[in-house]
Write a structure and sequence with these properties.
- With about 525 residues, the protein is an alpha+beta fold.
- Among the domains are: about 140 residues, Reverse transcriptase/Diguanylate cyclase domain (Alpha-Beta Plaits, 2-Layer Sandwich); about 90 residues.
- It has 18 helices and 13 strands.
- Strands 9-10-8-11-12-13 form a 6-stranded mixed β-sheet. A 5-stranded mixed β-sheet has the order 2-3-4-1-5, sandwiched between helices.
- The longest helix has about 35 residues.
- The N and C termini lie far apart (about 75 Å).
């Protein structure tokens, strides 16, 4: 019997969601993506004459014509296994047309392979899909020189709202948020613990007074509309899948055994991510329920090993600590359910997080690109510091970008966090999960911040020192010497001990000659405690 394996993957998802700094449009885009491979996919299957079946049904009687099985179906990605026939061919032709109509502006790739072996077809379709991603796609409507463009996105304008030209993608995102809310219960189910019925914000602009909008609850400091764009991504997932395929081939496992293990992994990693989100949300709800009606977070992506959200600045670090630790725990539980090929995966999975703090009126697309680039840099360092069990540690990189925003991490660090003498004022990467043996733990930064919790060691000195290091290293040394003379010796000793233990700085004077975490300390103290600059 010939089987068709069909794979769909939305690409440049973040570009599609973050193309606007309007929270309403980002929400509409994220909900549309979530529904695309949910309810809308189910409707498409019905019209093509296909019925989704469970893994148990596949084991009992194998696939019949008209059946479809999804080893993977989450967010903007699905992998479908069907018997080659009229229904499968109709769905293959129907689905790309439907996506273009439902989500204009969304870039995606599709590929299919027909084979008598499901295992071989699944491996082949991944290769074919990656090739397809590099094929240029036609964007409609065409943007010729005479076409009016949307001033905010650059896309071809199709209508005007409130006197401003907007493109088709923006129009659909707005309509999605306004008119189709009943469809979008998926995000709440993914993020909120069972029994919770909290509200997520829909706008940043507090000038919009309407019963239809839910304002983002900022921290309350006058003029402080700082948020964090958080992007978290699993470490080494692609490599583990390749190892899994290799082990399955070596063990000569049949199609059913392969489907069981592959489906267990795909659904397991999705489950671990969602369980981790709910665990972190329990903490956030407990922290924020007394001070605001809406939650101080806007979920955007939660699929597979990916998570993207916008969260209030003073909750961001602790939220991600809980998310990361829960993900490591739950991923181990899910991986232990794999019966064949378990050896291809580590004891547990880990995450890398990029976090950018910016004001709510800054361009979110640039902020996300910076967060993604920070994530990539942190991954490279984490891969070079695997523990003895071969596990890549969970890490965090963050920047505070409320003054100048770059979309490239190297440009930001060189332009904002590096002195004229080439001293970096950031440590860049911190270990966030349970393994901190090879990367400086995030707890070290928290311990540094604890040294400045009273008036004896005031954080204002570190701010002045960071400024002085940009201009005059010798003057910075004299500042440190004077500060040590007037400060409590035990407090200075505590600070120097932490710098030596975690950052290889022999003394405070070494801040003038070696890379240091000064900017990280200043940012963390301001953001996590809600302190305002002096």
């Amino acid at each position: 019997m010939a089987y068709m394996v069909y794979q769909f993957e939305a690409i440049s998802i973040q570009e599609y969601i973050m193309g606007s700094s309007k929270l309403k449009e980002m929400v509409g885009a994220s909900q549309l993506l979530d529904t695309l491979t949910g309810k809308l996919l189910s409707v498409a299957l019905e019209h093509a004459g296909l019925i989704e079946c469970t893994l148990e049904a596949v084991e009992r009687c194998h696939l019949q014509e008209g059946d479809v099985f999804f080893p993977r179906r989450a967010g903007g990605v699905f992998l479908a296994v069907m018997v080659q026939g009229d229904s499968a061919n109709l769905f293959q032709r129907l689905w790309p047309l439907l996506v273009q109509q439902i989500a204009p502006g969304l870039k995606f790739s599709v590929a299919n392979v027909v084979s008598e072996e499901i295992k071989q077809a699944i491996q082949s379709v991944r290769i074919k899909l990656n090739i397809e991603k590099n094929t240029p796609k036609v964007v409609l409507p065409e943007m010729s020189p005479l076409v009016m463009r949307s001033p905010r996105t650059g896309g071809a304008a199709t209508t005007t709202q409130h006197g401003v030209s907007i493109d088709l993608a923006t129009q659909v995102k707005r309509q999605t948020q306004d008119k189709a809310k009943a469809l979008f219960i998926g995000i709440h189910n993914k993020w909120l613990p069972e029994g919770e019925h909290k509200t997520f914000p829909t706008v940043f602009d507090h000038t919009q007074k309407s019963a239809k909008v839910v304002e983002f609850p900022f921290s309350g400091h006058e003029g402080d509309h700082t948020v964090a764009i958080v992007h978290a991504d699993g470490n080494g997932i692609g490599q583990y899948i390749q190892q899994f395929f290799h082990q399955i081939d070596q063990a000569h496992i049949g199609d059913i055994g392969f489907l069981k293990s592959y489906t267990t992994f795909s659904k397991g990693i999705n489950s671990a991510t969602q369980r981790a989100a709910k665990e972190a949300m329990k903490w956030l709800i407990a922290q924020s329920e007394k001070e605001c009606d809406a939650l101080p977070i806007r979920p955007l992506i939660l699929s597979g090993d990916d998570m993207t959200c916008i969260i209030r600045d003073d909750y961001a670090f602790q939220f991600m600590e809980r998310f990361t630790q829960a993900f490591e725990t739950y991923s181990q539980e899910e991986l232990n359910q794999i019966q064949v090929g378990r050896e291809a995966f580590p004891t547990y999975l880990t995450l890398t997080t990029g976090m950018v703090f910016l004001r709510s009126n800054q361009p979110f697309y640039m902020g996300y690109q910076l967060a993604e680039d920070l994530c990539a840099r942190s991954k490279a360092q984490a891969r070079a510091n695997k523990n003895r069990g071969g596990i890549i540690p969970s890490t965090l990189s963050f920047v505070h970008a409320t003054s100048t925003l770059f979309d490239n991490a190297n440009a930001f660090i060189q332009g904002e966090l590096t002195t004229q003498n080439s001293l970096k004022l950031t440590h860049e990467t911190y270990a966030l999960g349970q393994d901190t043996s090879s990367v400086t733990p995030f707890l070290a930064l928290k311990a540094l911040c604890d040294c400045f919790c009273d008036e004896t060691l005031n954080i204002r000195f570190m701010r002045k020192l960071a400024t002085t290091l940009q201009l005059d290293t010798e003057h910075a040394k004299r500042m440190i010497q004077r500060w040590k003379e007037i400060s409590n010796p035990s407090d200075i000793e505590r600070l120097e001990t932490l710098l030596k233990k975690y950052f290889q700085l022999s003394s405070l004077e070494a801040l003038c000659s070696q890379n240091s975490p000064i900017s990280d300390l200043i940012a963390y103290q301001q953001l996590n405690t809600g302190a305002t600059p002096s």
